[in-house]
Write a structure and sequence with these properties.
The protein is an all-alpha fold. The protein has a domain of about 80 residues. The protein contains 19 helices and no strands. α5 packs parallel to α7 and α10 packs across α12. It is extended. The N and C termini lie far apart (about 75 Å).
Length: about 280
C-alpha cells in the first residue's frame, strides 16, 4: 500500500470513528430517563451536541408530569439567562426555541406569554418566534397590540396577523393602519373576510391591493364582483393589475381574465404581450 492509499484509509477510519463516537454518545443519551435529560438541560450540563437532547425529547412520549418537569427546566433556563452573558443567553435562546416547539399549544403559550411584553427586545423576539407556529390566545393578542403601542414592534403585529381568529380581538382597522408590509395587511383582510366580512368589504376601496390579494388567497368565488368593482379606480396601477390577475386566476374567473387581457391589449398596444394577445 502506497502513502496515498494509506492516507485515504486513515481518513476513512477517522470519519468512521467520529460517526461511531456520535452513535455511542446518542445511544448513552437514550439510556437516560426524561427527568435526567430535563435536569441536564436546566443546568446547561450539555455536550456540544445540544440538538441531540432536543431530538431525544422529541422521540419520547411525554406524560403530564414529564411536561411539567420540562416546563420547570425551561423556566429555570429562562430565569438564568437574565443575568447571563450575551453568548450564554444566545445559547439558551436557541435551546428554548427548539424545546417550546415540542410543547402542546396550551403549555407552549403558557411558557411564552410572560416574554411577549418583556423589557428586553431579544426576549420579545424570542417569544414571537416561539409562538409563530402556534395558535395564540386573545390575552396574548391584546398583549402584543400593547407591545406595539409601547415599543413599535412590527413582529408583534405580524404574529397577530398569523392568527385570523385574533385579528378581530385587537381590531382589523388598527392592524391595517399600523402594519408596514402589504403582505401582512393582506393577511389581516383575509382574516376579516372570514370573521368580519362587512368590515372587509367596507375597507376594500381603501386597501385595494390587500383586498385583491386576500380574495385570491381565500379562493372564494362569491367575491368576484367585489373584486372587479375595484378595477376602474385602480386600472392605472400596475401592481394592482398584477395582483388582480392573480386573484382572478385563483377564483377561476375566466371571463374576467379575458376582459383584463383585452384591456391590457388596448391600453398597452405596443407591448410584446398585447401584440401576442391580439
Amino acid at each position: 500500500m502506497d502513502d496515498d492509499e494509506s492516507n485515504i484509509e486513515s481518513f476513512k477510519t477517522e470519519i468512521f470513528l467520529d460517526k461511531l463516537g456520535r452513535t455511542v454518545r446518542y445511544a448513552k443519551l437514550r439510556c437516560l430517563s426524561p427527568t435526567e435529560i430535563f435536569d441536564r438541560i436546566a443546568g446547561l450540563d450539555l455536550d456540544p451536541e445540544v440538538t441531540d437532547y432536543v431530538y431525544r425529547i422529541s422521540e419520547l412520549r411525554l406524560t403530564g408530569s414529564n411536561l411539567e418537569h420540562l416546563l420547570g427546566a425551561m423556566k429555570n433556563l429562562a430565569n438564568r439567562s437574565e443575568s447571563s452573558s450575551s453568548k450564554v443567553r444566545a445559547k439558551i435562546d436557541r435551546i428554548l426555541l427548539r424545546l417550546v416547539r415540542l410543547l402542546p399549544t396550551d403549555i407552549g403559550n403558557n411558557f411564552a406569554e410572560p416574554f411577549v411584553d418583556h423589557r428586553l427586545k431579544s426576549r420579545r423576539r424570542w417569544a414571537y418566534s416561539s409562538l409563530r407556529q402556534k395558535p395564540i390566545s386573545k390575552i396574548i393578542a391584546v398583549k402584543l397590540a400593547n407591545v406595539f403601542k409601547q415599543h413599535g414592534d412590527q413582529d408583534a403585529l405580524k404574529l397577530i396577523a398569523r392568527n385570523p381568529k385574533r385579528v378581530t380581538d385587537v381590531g382589523g382597522e388598527f392592524l391595517l393602519a399600523n402594519i408596514n408590509e402589504e403582505y401582512w395587511r393582506a393577511r389581516v383582510v383575509e382574516a376579516l373576510l372570514d370573521y368580519d366580512r362587512p368590515t372587509a368589504l367596507l375597507i376594500a376601496k381603501r386597501y385595494p391591493f390587500e383586498f385583491a390579494h386576500a380574495v385570491g388567497r381565500s379562493g372564494d368565488d362569491s367575491l368576484v364582483s367585489y373584486l372587479t368593482d375595484l378595477f376602474p379606480a385602480n386600472q392605472d396601477d400596475m401592481e394592482f393589475i398584477s395582483i388582480y390577475a392573480f386573484a382572478l386566476g385563483k377564483l377561476g374567473a375566466i371571463a374576467e381574465l379575458e376582459a383584463l387581457e383585452c384591456f391590457i391589449a388596448v391600453r398597452y398596444p405596443n407591448s410584446q404581450r398585447s401584440q401576442s394577445t391580439a
